Each structure stands twice: as structure tokens, then as C-alpha cells.
Amino acid sequence: MLFYIFVLFFLSYCFYTLYWKRKTLPPGPFPLPVIGNLYDIYKHGIGDISTFLHQKYGGLNTFWVGNKPVVSFNDFNLIQEAFVKNGEAFAGRPKVQETSKLLRGGSYGIVLTDGELWREHRRFALHVLRNFGLGRNLMQERVLNEVIWMIDEMKQQLKNGEEEISVQSKIDVAVGSIINSLIFGYAFHEVSRYQKL
């Protein structure tokens, strides 16, 4: 009896894998359970898999990464129709809900979200960055001030007879000074105090 249940379960799984979950998707290579078509990617290489799929299955095809289907557009006219003419239908990000929930407690930020939440986060980030001087000459001016300070410091060290100059420590202080001027409004040039922090 247990054997028949196992055979029935196995046949149901094969039917689901071979037919049911693939029936609404474009054609593509047969996916193995758990790993999908990773063997094809390994066999043909990550750079040539699109060429292989295009030659064998046409300009629109499906391959599987694990249990997730990936629909691949390999024809210019199809790409233009999908992403230019019907762009709103394809505007979104892949759903990695399980990973996001496991690692971060959900999808947050600009990178892992889409839709209205993405627009809201993007709007907020651009607003904050513009207030800090992004897109204006203010940021460029701050960076140039730090570069001038670095060059003056190195010239002073050369005049004092130092043979070795640590450029890395100067860059560290300059970057810290730029961040400090963005957050607190004043530059920070005391190397010894910076190193203590």
C-alpha cells in the first residue's frame, strides 16, 4: 500500500513538473527538480546560454533557476514590444520574498521594492540627497576643498623633510571630513583626533 502511495505521489510530482507548471510559459529546456536548468548554464556558460536558448527555442523562452522560472527575451523586436510598448506591464522587480523576509524581515529600501513603495522610497531618497547637495556644485566644492587640503598637507610634509607620506590616511581623513561637513556642517582636519575616533 505504501509503495502505491509513493508511486502516485511520484507520478503526480512528475506531471506537475513536466506539464502543469510549464503549460502557460514559453518553451524551454526541461528543468530538473530542485536545480532547474542550472546544468544547462554550467554546460554552455553564463554568457552563451542566451544564444543557445535563442537558437533552439526561439526569441522568447523559459529556463529555470531552481524552482523559479526565468522568461528570456532574445529578439530585438520582442524586447521592444515588451519593454517599450508594454513597459508598464513589465515594470517590476523579481519577487525574492522568502530571502528578504528571512534576511531582513521584509522588502525595504530602494533596491528590493517595486510599485508604490519603491516610488515613495525613491522620492524620499532623492529629496534627502538633494538637501545634502547632490546635483549642485555644493558637493563638488566640498570635495575640491578636501583635495586642496590633502595636497597642502602633503606639500607641508615634504617641506618638513619627511621621506614617506601616507596618502591613504589623508584620503581617509578627507572622506571623513566630507561626511562630517554633510552631517554636522563643518570640516574635520585633525588627523590624530580622527585616528582616535
Helix % is: 55-70%
Number of strands: 2
Gap from first CA to last CA: 71 Å
DSSP summary: helix tally: 10
Summed up, the domain count is 3
Low-confidence stretches: none
Question: What percentage of amino acids are in beta strands?
Answer: 5-15%
The gyration radius over C-alpha positions equals 28 Å
**What does the main sheet amount to?**
2 strands, antiparallel
- Structural category is mainly alpha
Kindly report the oligomeric state of this protein. single chain
Coarse shape:
elongated
Encode the helix/strand succession as letters: HHHEEHHHHHHH
In the sheet with the most strands, the strands line up as 1-2
Mean pLDDT: 80
Describe the structure.
The protein has helices spanning 2-18, 38-44, 49-57, 76-85, 87-90, 97-104, 115-131, 137-159, 167-183, 191-196, and strands spanning 60-65, 68-73. With 197 residues, it is mainly α. The protein folds into 3 domains: 2-91, no CATH class; 95-131, no CATH class; 137-196, no CATH class. Strands 1-2 form a two-stranded antiparallel sheet. Helix 8 packs antiparallel against helix 9 (167-183). It is elongated. The N and C termini lie far apart (71 Å). The model has no long low-confidence stretch (mean pLDDT 80).
